[in-house]
Specification:
With about 270 residues, the chain is an alpha/beta fold. Helices cover about 25% and strands about 20% of the residues. It comes from Candidatus Gallitreponema excrementavium.
Length: about 270
């Protein structure tokens, strides 16, 4: 029995939430970092569990992460869909991930929308996920494992149905509800591209570890704005703080988000 954990986490919040959720798994783990852009071949065996953990960007999943998942083929393997958002809203992202997981041949048995520090505005949910989240997520994972132990064999009609939250309305999905709309909301890229400052030591870590290779490996000041997904990984990785966002764009966004995100939002759990 192996836990296969697929995580896209440019700034670490999604990875932390996934670790909290799966803390009580007592068997072998296979951790796959979707952020690197490569997915090794995975053969799913009976008794395995897959966890898919992706961040929410403007209410949707990052297309780069979804595209990387297309290389997978489930074997009716039970799966958990986990989206992580910065205390604003996750909108259609959880439904999108649940539907994606099912379309790849997995059996989505549970879904979670968890809160982590906002990737752009650090002052929003700065310490999330925290100890309260840890207790809630790890306890929920116990319930997920209880559900998996009672699952009938794949194809049992009492468990699977055709329904509106299958995305297309034609594929089968496990019988539990998650919020969201289909068609999904349009993907609207955040127009925030980190800029290089004069403090750069030219180590190249930002270019090497950019999830979408938006930073030129020959000139770190050059960023392809069409590729950049505003994930802020380059900001978090740089020990010299040599990248920053244009203040004239960041400050209005921060002011607006801080009003929307002032109240603590709790994790939402679906089983």
């Amino acid at each position: 029995m192996t836990l296969h954990k697929f995580v896209f986490s440019p700034t670490g919040g999604t990875k932390k939430a996934a670790s909290f959720l799966c803390q009580n798994w007592g068997g072998k783990e296979n951790n796959i970092d979707l952020t690197t852009g490569t997915i090794p071949r995975v053969d799913f065996e009976p008794g395995d569990l897959a966890v898919f953990a992706l961040p929410v960007y403007a209410g949707r999943l990052p297309p780069a992460a979804v595209n990387r998942l297309q290389a997978l083929k489930g074997n009716k393997t039970p799966a958990v869909a986990l989206v992580v958002y910065g205390n604003r809203a996750y909108e259609d992202a959880l439904l999108e991930l649940k539907n994606t997981v099912n379309s790849l041949g997995f059996r989505c048995v549970a879904a979670v929308a968890a809160v982590a520090r906002h990737s752009i505005v650090d002052s929003i949910a700065p310490f999330r996920p925290d100890l309260q989240d840890y207790a809630q997520l790890s306890a929920f994972f116990d319930k997920i494992q209880d559900k998996i132990r009672t699952l009938p064999s794949p194809g049992t009609q009492s468990l699977e149905k055709r329904g509106p939250d299958s995305g297309t309305g034609t594929g089968k999905t496990l019988d539990f509800y998650v919020p969201g709309n289909f068609p999904y909301k349009e993907i609207t890229p955040v127009p925030l591209v980190p800029e290089l400052t004069g403090d750069c030591s030219f180590c190249g870590v930002c270019a090497r570890r950019c999830p979408v290779k938006a930073i030129s490996p020959d000139d770190y000041a050059q960023v392809d704005s069409k590729k950049c997904i505003s994930c802020m990984r380059c900001l978090r990785l740089c020990t010299r703080k040599a990248r920053s966002l244009p203040p004239e764009k960041l400050q209005p966004l921060a002011a607006r988000l801080e009003k929307l995100c002032s109240d603590r939002k709790e994790n939402e759990l679906f089983l």
